[in-house]
Amino acid sequence: MNVGPVTGPQRQFPSGAKYAEALQHTQLCFQHPELVGARPELTKLGLPRAISGAFASVFSLTSAVSGRRYAIKCFTRNVPDQERRYQAISARLARLNPGELSQPWNLGFEYLTDAISVGPHRYPVLKMEWAEAVTLSSWLDHNHARPSAVDRLAERFEALTRDLDALDIAHGDLQHGNLLVASDDTLRLVDYDGMFVPELAGMSGTERGHRNYQSPMRGNDDFGAELDRFSAWVIFLSLKAIASDPGLWSRLHEPSGEFLLLTEDDFKSPGSSMRLQTLLAHPDRTVSGLADQLRSLAAQPLDVLPPLALALPKQRATATTSATANAPVPPAAGGLPSWMMTGHVSPEAAPPPPQPSDAAPDGFRTRTLLDVAAAGLCPLMVIATVIICVAGFPVSPIEAGMPGFVAVALIVFARSRRAERAELRATLSKLTGELGRLDDPVKAAEKLHKERARFDAGEAKRTAALTKAQAKLTAHYQADLKEAEKRKARKERDLDRQIDGLAEELRKSLAQALTNKQSTYVRDQLGRQLISQSPPPGIGPKLASRLAAAGIRTAADFKGYRPVQNTHYNSTGAVLVLSSGRVVDVNGIGEAKAIALDVWRKRVVASVEARQPTSLGMSERQSIEEDIARRRAQLVAWRKGVEPETEALRVKARKQKEVGLERLNRENSLAGDRARQQRQEFAQRATTLQQNSVLHEALSAAVETARLRLRRLSLGCYVRFLYIAR
Amino acid sequence: MPYTAEISRSNPTSIIFLVDQSTSMSDPIGGEVPQQKADVVADAINRLLTELSIKCAKEEGVRDYFHVAVIGYGASVGSAFAGALAGRDIVPLSEVADNPARVDERSKKVSDGAGGLVETAVSFPLWMDPLAHGGTPMNRALQYAESLVAGWTERYPASFPPIVINLTDGESTDGDPTAAAEAITSHATADGAALLFNLHVSASGGTPTAFPDTADGLPDSYARTLFAMSSPLPSHMRSYAASQGQRVSETTRGFVYNADITTVVQFLDIGTRATELR
Question: pTM here?
Answer without folding.
Answer: 0.67
